[in-house]
């Protein structure tokens, strides 16, 4: 394989020009993986931040505020190019992606409220890779490598172990069965808008413009939901501070990083890498909130780290 500087040799007029170098897929995978991991790390702070919300703030209000207000910030950063994505399409991918953006936060935050934070997070994020793989398989006929399966199974088992290690209070909820069902719905929504964003980016649209378009369309539905349910959340300085953090850091900033990562890795890989989120959430629960994690829980942490390392490590080329 030639180097990035082309073929060495003479510069005579009779020489054929050196063919353009093709970048190795490994650096793109590694760079994109780190962008997705950075976004997932920011997402992992949402549970800790949500514990600071005022009493009476519902999951619907938290979800609508996070991705509704954050969506406005995202589209404001690139509103002209975002509008171009909506106009030039394909419109189907924009609308389907926006639908996933509406479904995901409302189902995710309500799932945590009904089934418990640990169960809601693990079911929502842990089920997403399966839906992402099914979408790629059904829409494009793409096969999944043994490396992807091994990483997904290891990280998914690690998330399950973290749930079991959380104890009774962490996994109890008012309506556990309905909460688990909503977690599955949230996983489908997350995988759906990730796949639609990936299709738009691969179609030639910029990552920032694509995320701005999808979140701008989603905000058209989420903001009215916030107006109806957001009284307890937005009625105090503490609630406004929590809302501001959720909208700016784990939403706007994180999804800009996630969009840049989607331009470099497949949607199924990106969604699997997002299993880093419950790992960060567990560590913050121990170090910030004051929860305890036993040896069984740290074993789950090791499984998640091992699974993610299988996708991020650079493979040796012959």
From TrEMBL:
The chain crosses the membrane at residues 59-79, 91-107, 113-135, 147-166, 178-197, 209-228, 240-258, 270-289, 295-313. Keywords: Cell membrane, Membrane, Transmembrane, Transmembrane helix. Its main location: membrane. Residues 1-23 are annotated as: Disordered. It holds the Pfam family EamA. It comes from the Bacteria. It is a multi-pass membrane protein. Residues 32-163, 178-311 form the EamA domain. The keyword Transmembrane helix applies. It is found in: Cell membrane. One of its GO terms (cellular component) is plasma membrane. Belongs to the EamA transporter family. This is EamA family transporter.
